[in-house]
Amino acid sequence: MIPTQFDYVAPGSVDEALAALAQHGDDAKVLAGGQSLLPVLRMRLNAPEVVIDLGKIDALREIRDEGDTITIGAMATYQSILDHTGIKGSLRLLHQAISEVADPQIRHRGTLGGALVHADPAGDCGAPTLALEADLVIQGPSGERTVAATDFFEDLFTTAVGDDELLTAIRFRKHDGWGSHYEKFVRVAHQWPIVSIAAAVKVDGGTISEARIGLVNMGSTALRASATEAALVGAQATAEGVAEACAKAADGTNPPSDLNGDADYRRHLATVLTKRAVLKAAGG
Amino acid sequence: MNAHDSHSPADSNTGPEPFVGQSVRRTEDLRLLTGQGMFTDDAVVVDPVYCAILRSPHAHARIVSVDTSRAQAMPEVVLAISGAEAAEHWTQIPAGMDLMDMKLPKVYAIATDKVHYEGEPVAAVVAETRYAAEDALAAIDVEYEPLPAVASVEDALGVHPFDAPDGPWSPKAVLYEEWGHNIQCDWAFEIGDPDAVFASAPHVVSCRPAAHRYSGVPMETRAVVAEYDAGRETLKMRVSTQLPHQSRTLIAQILGLSEPNVQVLADDVGGGFGNKTQVDAEVIPALMAKLSGRAVKWFEPRGDWLSSGPASRDYAHHVEGAFDNDGTLLAIREHLVGDEGCDGATRSAGLGALLVGGTYSAGPYHVRSYKARVQAVVTNKAPYGAYRGYGKETANLAIERLMDTAAAKLGIDPVAIRQHNLVREFPYEMAAGPIIESGSFSQLLDMVTEAMDLPALRLRQEQARAEGRHVGIGVISFLEPSAGSIPMSVFNGYETASVRIMPDGKAMVLSGLQGIGQGVETSLAQITADRLGLHPGDVRIVYGDTKAVPYGLGAYASRGATYGMSAVYEAAGEVRRKLLKAAAGMLEVDPEDLELGRGEVWVAGVPTTRLSVQEVARAVYLSPGPYATLPGEESPTLEANHVWTNPNVSWVPDEHGRVRLYPTHGSGAQGVVVEVDVETGEIQIEKMWIAHDCGKVVNPAIVHGQIIGSTVQGLGGTMFEQLSYDDQGKLLTKTLNDYQLPNIMSVPPIEVLHMETPSPITPLGTKGVGEGGCIGTPAVLLSAVEDALREFGVTVERTPLDPMRVRALVRNAPQTAPVAG
């Protein structure tokens, strides 16, 4: 890796990190697991003067089971999340999506917080975070605030986290009793999804009573398929029952066009994959 | 030459089990797998500086000015140089091949007046650190005057040659003004009055196969370590190359050095695949070493490999077949148009692949009337190079798509039409010229269909269709011409070997081949060991050092098993003769009465009368010496040199314009079962079968690895990998995130079946094996996908088979199947 020259600071606490951010402002980039930032630096697409490494702040790596909720520190690696039995049991959608992030090497380095703040709409983590209606805990000079997932992703690579703030944790309500499925569509296993669907549904006596659908790579941010979610309520959990609702999965989206798929193909995939994800979620 | 005239233990039945034919464990693997390899950039040199190359951001532009002064003034920068400055110190790049009236660009390794692709070098620096070198690139000021970008064959000619093969052309721009047009080579020949055959044939079928642009992605990109000794005027260069000797020739020529003063070293090479068969950017760090007086290291960034490395495929093919009512192939007419990017003959060697594609389109099938036209068109993309397959996959896709099309049209089973037309008698002179020296094509096809249990698969396919699932079956044959020998080129037709038994009784073999991962250290040692009665572990193979090894040609065109092995076999045979002669004298017996094996020589039937090879060797070299042990021998030590050539290469075009470039022909058959998800376009490959015949197999494990590796590369290219440009000639796939390589999850089970039909023209019966899976895999996948989508009535003849394209085939299908998504 041959990046441009930068200064490196590794604060030992969140307060120190916030102080470093306050000092360097726009000239600084925050380093979490480095799985997106380092390629950017390597390709010289970004030339920060200072890199603030959060890797020494052990408190940000904690995963806490709080009864009804599980709070994941922003610096918890994908692998540590996968290894957490509470997440495996009560947040299966998140667990499944993270288990399909890239490859084992990346999952041992990359962090959930880093991925969410990077806010690549093709990332695997935004959609389950939306579908599970997580709360994101942000700290800044004036203290701590909590932002709902639906308000967190603002635009391509842009979130509610301000230049002088840090995402410190992600809080998930346990989803025991929900069925879920992460349906990922890729050409090669470790690659970014062309489209993915994160579906969580509650089924009572064969009828869907609640549904949350997150979409990956269907716009400038991770999205929720609100029209489908609404239409699924009351639907029979069968192929025929969910078909009409799932056909709305791409409503209101503006997906990108690239070599893997143009916008029309992505819209089509979203409807096909949503149907599959919902049925698997309802069956599981 | 005869296949079975040898006296090696392999044929004697009295000595120990021969090593040829055994899966001897690869001697190179321990060092490679434990991080002890010596790849180019691993070399430690005294006080190095690091080279970085500034590359053009434009596909086509005139260079108005290059100002290196700001870079030169940076504290750690040793030297910054523009193309115009460099041109005072070197020549234009000499062509790697010059035949068939091809046009050759006159270009330097660093552009002087014009750039022809995004990624062409425009300046270079060396600095004390790699960081400083990269930083300095940003301080070089280049002013360009952009020109219209020629991003496609249509841009290059103004009309597609399928519509107007002879023009008139109206190019968007001309890359090389002195040519006046954008066609590097236009080659045609015909034999057997094909137009008359077509006019009277009961059936004419045609298809238009086309492949996108992709290439090899070796783990080690291009790399150089160059040291210039001004006192001796010598240049020592480590290069990641398949051709150390020809690299030395070209580098010496470019830099104006005496060729004996240049040493090229290539110890371990991290992948070749045909991609490292030219001298292009490699000469830049060499010049920097000469000008700066410092040792220079250059290790190409991956992005530069993708933007400027040799690309492949990227062609459109129009092929027609005339068939009789019973499915007999009567004639072929074809027109192949290649998009070469900026050059396929000087900066890299891809042009020949198009000529091969136009020569071999009959594949393993019998046909006597043939007409070919090949047009190699230049555009503003990276150079066109060699890549595993080298046009054989182009020929194969054409004939196999034609066979499937004819089978469907004539209502004949696709396997049956192939069996009906396969060549069965050998040697067979193809209509296009090459002589297929031996083969068992029909048996290979049987092997595959039996291993697949084709009738059961067809039944399962019917059941799946009834459930609304789309299972497809593909079965194809392929021809694998090997050991290509191109006249008027650095890809010539001979190989050298020098074999020696040393005084300690162990052997060293100097081979002009180059190790690029294909296991030559093991397989050549097996052959030598059998000839000299030694263990392969007592045979040291030396290659990749122009100071040690006689001039040889390296690794390309699957030539090792034909040229390299035969040269070693013959040289070792001569050493064997002298060894037995010396031993016979020492034992006072006739050489004919001696047997050789396990490091010893003994009198047949008298096992107690024996000498070790070491005892004989010491006697020959030292005590008492050659006057006593090999009296009367012209060259009385245990050393012999051999240059192997063969009779089946013919470079003088006959009255039809035909030449013979490939002397040996491996062959095979392939089968695959796929399932297409018609809602998403995703293709699941359930299983692949490949039956392969490369003649005598020296090391089955190595052959197996070659077949698996080439099959996966064929699969990757057909399904995932893509060098994609926009309509301004800008590369869209600049990282391995965009250029998607297959991984272990992408690879289906592959069952490999072997058959051995020896070649009569090589002493061991060997044929090349490096490219088989790359040749047949595109065709078998397209065949299977078309079969899966049969009820939609679609034609599958283009790559890549990515899900969006497959879905579009279904969506735009002429027929709607019951379960279309």
Question: In a few lines, what is going on in this structure?
Answer:
The complex is a heterodimer of chains A (284) and B (821). With 284 residues, chain A is α+β, with helices and mostly antiparallel strands. Chain A folds into three domains: 7-52, Uridine Diphospho-n-acetylenolpyruvylglucosamine Reductase, domain 2, CATH 3.30.43; 61-173, Uridine Diphospho-n-acetylenolpyruvylglucosamine Reductase, domain 3 (2-Layer Sandwich); 182-282, Enolase-like, domain 1 (2-Layer Sandwich), CATH 3.30.390.
What does this structure look like?
The complex is a heterodimer of chains A (284) and B (821). Chain A is of the alpha+beta class. Chain A contains twelve helices and 14 strands. Chain A has three domains: 7-52, 2-Layer Sandwich (Uridine Diphospho-n-acetylenolpyruvylglucosamine Reductase, domain 2); 61-173, 2-Layer Sandwich (Uridine Diphospho-n-acetylenolpyruvylglucosamine Reductase, domain 3), CATH 3.30.465; 182-282, Enolase-like, domain 1, CATH 3.30.390. A five-stranded antiparallel beta sheet of chain A has the order 4-5-10-6-7. Chain A has a four-stranded antiparallel beta sheet with strand order 11-12-13-14. Chain A has a three-stranded parallel beta sheet with strand order 1-3-2, covered by helices on one side. In chain A, helix 10 runs antiparallel to helix 11 and helix 11 packs antiparallel against helix 12. The longest helix of chain A is centred in the last third of the chain and has 21 residues, at 263-283. The N and C termini of chain A lie far apart (44 Å). Mean pLDDT of chain B is 95; it is low at 1-14. By secondary structure, chain B is α+β, with helices and mostly antiparallel strands. Chain B is globular, with a radius of gyration of 28 Å. In chain B, strand 10 (223-229) and strand 11 (234-239) form a beta hairpin. In chain B, helix 17 packs across helix 18. The A-B interface holds A 2, 4-5, 39, 43-44, 185, 187-192, 194, 259-262, 265, 268-269, 272-273 and B 130-131, 134-135, 301, 303, 679-680, 682, 719-720, 722, 724, 732-733, 735, 737-738, 740-743, 745-746, 802-804, 807-808, 821.
